[in-house]
Design goal:
Layout: H1 28-33, E1 41-45, E2 50-51, H2 56-66, E3 71-75, E4 94-98, H3 104-108, H4 134-145, E5 151-153, H5 155-159, E6 165-167, E7 172-174, H6 177-181, E8 185-187, H7 192-203, E9 217-222, E10 232-235, H8 273-284, E11 287-291, H9 294-297, H10 301-313, E12 322-327, E13 330-334, H11 343-350, E14 357-358, H12 361-366, H13 372-377, E15 380-382, E16 384-385, H14 396-400, E17 405-406, H15 409-422, E18 429-430, E19 432-434, H16 448-453, H17 473-483, E20 490-491, H18 499-502, H19 506-515, E21 520-526, H20 530-536, H21 541-557, E22 563-570, H22 577-589, E23 598-599, H23 607-614, H24 637-647, H25 655-664
Parallel strand pairs: 1-3, 1-4, 4-5, 5-8, 10-11, 11-12, 15-19, 18-20, 21-22, 22-23
Antiparallel strand pairs: 2-14, 6-7, 8-9, 9-13, 12-13, 16-17
């Protein structure tokens, strides 16, 4: 893997003389108090500004401040005019635009496309404080505010819409957000390296149109553009290329030109494994893969699935090639993904002087304003980023990557002490030590060379890779040291536990169950049936059963009455009505009556979204004679409601719909009033009106009011990706 310039090795910009701001300014008055006449960078966000490292704009802003730049924040501006975007003046370098910690469409709409009644990232949960597709709306207003200003987009919304993508809310394939926003550059993934490098280069006088070599960035270019003559283009628009593009060289063959590219030549007699590896890396570093154009994927689902597969296969920073996708007469060019941060770099990112509180303006303008997302994470700590699970319905891997980046023990313990000493309202309970998952801390491939060459989409499916380290020892030691700190009464773990990994470490499960469960532990088997689980890339339900036995045994040994709360997904691609019925029977057999359930939501770029849109499986070869079969997909509103109703078989409101479905499936034997039945024959008065059966022929039923469907409930989401902190 390439080496990267250390994040904090740049010479600090001259504006460092102004020192550290108590909060990054949101008004001219605050700028003047700091002695500023202008901002070098202005960050525009769809979230309330909370100066805490769990919130993207605060982390990015403090990072740039540490580099010596003056950074201002425009939070949740009124997008109906350009005036709110002029509040801090014209930025000297660029506007940095993000929708916030969530995709704006996921934030505003439920999986049934209903507008949510609240917004967890807004003061007092007030809704409608951000536009649909906020990155596009904000970028356009920045351009209106100041002609010719540089605009850089990033964050989860831009990251997951960097190529042509299926948009569930409009039910069509949309162009790359780069084309719609007309931004100068897009940064995808965790963009600290690219952001710092770009800002210093712009400050040194380079034009943004000339900066084309930063990993983790995308930009528009003329069709067919290449950085230099030595670059080769592979056309993957018709034929899929699997595995290694560059085969191992024949020791009797003549060495070909790619061996001479990218930083050195290799003697004809040197065919060592290391030489071949370097040769392949050199060739890939100067290769761009052309995926099907927007005009093609918009109309052809098979080519869309192929483009999605190619993008995901080129996601490992150690071997990924650049990608290019035509949008009309221009190309969207994507450089390879960013290199992960080292532990020392990540520590410094999290150790910066955050105020660890919402900006004072929220209390000044709204009284004692409550921001649900802040209330949820104020006493929790991110200990790592990234996820190698690769669940197809989750976009964490597409955004944060598969390589786990972990903070040091010292940095984490210092943050716990900072919460204890500085955060108002702290009672001694840390609500979470986690990240995208609870138990991937310090886990990595056993061999860096293998890691850099790997193209697997998951390190744990269909089984845990033999090269993946599963030692939970460092995490166990961290838990013990954390709860031993003075003033700390309890350390809870609320991030999702990857239980198939936890099974490899009974010591970890015992530590977790004995000391870090507050009565209930939420985990996510997601389903019980093989078909849906294979399309999710999740382990079989037997792994859950083994974990449950271990959980109950250690709970009993600790003298505690504790319970597992499982999460499941309805209507996921690859799920049939029979699958949902079997899941409902499993729930009844295990005495589960679920309260909150989730219907599959197709988010941009997720592999499961590709299945939903194309009815093809991008986990398998799509073009070139593959055996890819059609994926069963639930689209109809009534069928989606049915799958959700199976998860809440105990709710009388769902019984009419379930009765009709069971009769149609030939399973009327499950309707009755005994223990062996799934639902009863009787219907309580005043219930089930949403799903009344059709009136039999010849009968007339007086008109009855139809109960309005209650909007999907929504808890505050901890900011760590589109799925937030929901258990994995």
């Amino acid at each position: 893997m390439d080496t990267a310039k250390p994040l904090f090795s740049y010479r600090r910009f001259w504006a460092k003389r102004f020192g550290v701001a108590p909060f990054l300014p949101m008004s001219r008055k605050e700028m003047e108090a700091l002695g500023w006449d202008s901002c070098d960078v202005i960050l525009v966000t769809g979230d309330a500004y909370i100066d805490h490292p769990s919130f993207g704009m605060a982390l990015v802003g403090r990072l740039l401040e540490a580099q010596g730049f003056r950074v201002g924040i425009i939070s949740q501006p009124d997008w109906k005019s350009a005036d709110p975007f002029r509040v801090l003046g014209r930025p000297n370098l660029y506007f940095g635009v993000t929708a916030g910690n969530m995709d704006s469409m996921v934030n505003r709409y439920t999986s049934d496309r209903r507008i949510r009644s609240d917004d967890a990232y807004t003061a007092n949960a007030e809704p409608n404080k951000r536009p649909d597709r906020a990155v596009v709306a904000y970028s356009q207003r920045c351009r209106e505010a100041y002609a010719g200003v540089n605009v850089v987009i990033g964050g989860i919304e831009a990251s997951l819409r960097r190529i042509a993508h299926y948009d569930y809310w409009s039910d069509k394939v949309r162009r790359s957000v780069l084309a719609d926003s007309k931004a100068d550059m897009l940064m995808f993934g965790n963009a600290e390296r690219a952001l710092v490098a770009l800002t210093h280069r712009l400050a040194a006088g380079e034009a943004i149109a000339e900066i084309r070599d930063l990993r983790g960035t995308a930009f528009m270019a003329p069709f067919g553009w290449k950085p230099s003559e030595e670059w080769a283009e592979i056309d993957s628009t018709q034929l899929e290329i699997l595995g290694r593009v560059d085969a191992h060289p024949d020791p009797y063959a003549v060495v070909t030109p790619p061996f001479e590219k990218g930083g050195g030549t290799y003697p004809l007699h040197d065919f060592s494994q290391e030489a071949r590896r370097k040769a392949r890396q050199a060739a890939r570093a100067h290769t761009v893969l052309r995926i099907p154009a927007y005009d093609l994927v918009e109309k052809n689902p098979v080519l869309y699935a192929h483009a999605s597969r190619m993008l995901h296969l080129e996601s490992n920073p150690g071997n990924a090639r650049a990608l290019v996708q035509a949008h009309g007469e221009r190309d969207v060019w994507l450089n390879p993904p960013p290199l992960p941060l080292a532990t020392e770099e990540l520590d410094r990112v999290y150790d910066m002087p955050y105020a660890r509180a919402p900006h004072p303006s929220y209390n000044a303008n709204s009284g004692d304003a409550k921001i649900p997302a802040w209330e949820m994470i104020r006493f929790s700590i991110n200990i790592m980023r990234g996820c190698f699970g690769g669940c197809t319905f989750c976009s964490i891997t597409e955004h944060e990557g598969r390589i786990i980046q972990s903070r040091s023990e010292t940095s984490i313990l210092n943050e716990i002490e900072a919460i204890r000493d500085k955060t108002p309202g702290f009672t001694g309970v840390i609500s979470d030590l986690g990240g995208p998952t609870a138990n991937m801390y310090r886990l990595a491939c056993k061999d860096p060379v293998i890691e850099s060459a790997c193209r697997r989409l998951s390190c744990v499916f269909p089984d845990i890779c033999e090269n993946m380290g599963t030692d939970h020892g460092p995490l166990v030691q961290l838990y013990r040291k954390a709860r031993a700190l003075p003033g700390i009464k309890k350390i809870l773990i609320s991030s999702g536990v990857r239980y198939d990994l936890a099974l490899r470490s009974p010591e970890y499960v015992k530590e977790l169950v004995t000391h870090h469960v507050g009565g209930y532990l939420k985990i996510a088997p997601e389903h019980t049936e093989e078909g849906p689980l294979n399309h999710m890339m999740k382990p079989g339900i037997a792994a859950y059963d083994r974990f449950k036995l271990m959980f109950e045994r250690f709970s009993k040994e600790a003298g505690k009455e504790q319970y597992l709360i499982p999460y499941f997904i309805a209507a996921h691609p690859g799920t049939t009505d029979e699958d949902m019925l079997n899941l409902a029977l499993w729930l009844k057999h295990n005495n589960f009556r679920l309260d909150q359930v989730q219907t599959f939501l197709p988010t941009p770029m997720a592999l499961a979204t590709t299945m939903y849109h194309t009815e093809r499986n991008p986990l398998k070869k799509v073009l070139g004679g593959g055996d890819n079969k059609t994926v069963s997909v639930v689209r109809a509103g009534r069928t989606r409601k049915l799958h959700k109703a199976f998860l809440r078989y105990h709710d009388a409101e769902n019984w009419p719909l379930l009765r009709d479905a069971l009769q149609a499936m030939g399973r009327a034997d499950l309707i009755g009033n005994g223990k062996k039945h799934l639902i009863p024959t009787f219907q309580p008065a005043g219930t089930g009106r949403r799903f009344e059966s059709a009136t039999p022929a010849g009968e007339r039923r007086p008109p009855r009011p139809v109960a309005r469907t209650k909007p999907e409930s929504r808890r505050p989401v901890k900011p760590s990706g589109p799925r937030g902190k929901r258990p994995r």
